[in-house]
Design brief:
The protein is mainly α and 457 residues long. The chain has 19 helices and 6 strands. It is elongated, with a radius of gyration of 31 Å. It binds arginine. This is Argininosuccinate lyase.
Amino acid sequence: MSGKLWGGRFQNSAEQWVDEFGASIGFDQQLVTEDLEGSIAHVTMLGACGILSQDEVNTIKDGLHQLQQKATEGSLEFSIANEDIHLNLEKMLIDLIGPVGGKLHTGRSRNDQVATDMHLFLKKRVQEVISLIEAFQKAIVTQAEDNIDTLAPGYTHLQRAQPISFAHHLMTYFWMLERDKQRFQDSLKRTDISPLGAGALAGTTFPIDREMSAELLGFSAVYQNSMDAVSDRDFIVEFLSNGSLLMAHLSRFAEEIILWSSEEFKFIELDDVFSTGSSIMPQKKNPDMAELIRGKAGRVYGNLMGLLTVLKGIPLAYNKDMQEDKEGMFDTLHTIVGSLKIFEGMVRTMTVAKETLHKAVHQDFSNATELADYLATKGMPFREAHEVTGKLVFLCIQRGIYLLDLSIEDLQEASSLIEVDVYDVLAPEAAVQRRHSLGGTGFEQVKIQIAKAKECL
Ligand code: ARG
């Protein structure tokens, strides 16, 4: 006798250290709400289909409601001997209402049960993630609206390239997040499907109504193949994959936040709440939260790789390997929720050093393309205009000045096509202003972009 709910065919009792290795209760207790919801729907359906009597159903439901109450109070005591959330709750139910509790598992297996729990859990949490992404997008839009006229150096290769509106830079992250949001939304289609009633793998001999239990649980569809129902973990992989791409975006933004808050850039200042000091250097204000988010991308990618690897060689249908789908999922959820909340606050409260950005853009060569375009507009082949401008940049570097500091004589010596109107063209404000191609950094385009962005919220 093993003392287990499944112990009938066993002779020797279990050993605790082996139980500990096999148990998932340490982490799958996070599915307690979903597991109870699933059981209530299942037993309701068993009653409606005449598989259990209405009396039995009422007694079982009453017990399940009591367990729900205890779960809310946090007074359920889980045990490793009962392996996982499903067996723990079933044991508690039987202890509470007697042997009739053993009828709950009619026409069901832990295999369809755990899959149902995971579908219910992710369906709910993905919606929370989507709301958090939106909140973060709003913070970005608010900062962007505040910085349409803030000139900033735009970079390629981390070298100053062309002047831009700082709002344009910020809004880039809005659109990345918009795609993240859409991906999470889209994944709901494949998460919102009920595996309940698939049984262990082959369906059941009881006259159950899978559509009914699915509807009771708010699922939009049911799996068409019982083996697929219990073996599918694609929806979790999708979640981990969407989470990974989200973290890639947050990590890029975090990197910029870190650079911008450095003494070398000083483009922004983070609120004290999102910074930490040094235990030895009194002057330090470190962007720890941004660094942590950049670092946490690693564990989220790891969770994705972990699950893909778990799944790659397992035969149909359920295998215990699949229990390994949970910790990575909980960890990813926890990580992206935390990262999104922190990032929203960090961006909402940061101070943009408009003056520093303004100065930066007036003390660089990011207006060189303007000069080349100017010459091209006057009829010089662009390749030649590029060469002439490059030579003028070199002249400036030798003299320790910028293009706008060159005299008209110097400029005209480089090309007779240049006239005094060139100074207006070289002003960074003008450079930004004139980039009004669709989606460009021109102030008017940025305003249009922000208006479009707001329609997504
Ligand atoms: N704890 C298990 C898991 O997470 C539940 C399903 C167990 N099924 C079984 N046949 N052993 O995968």
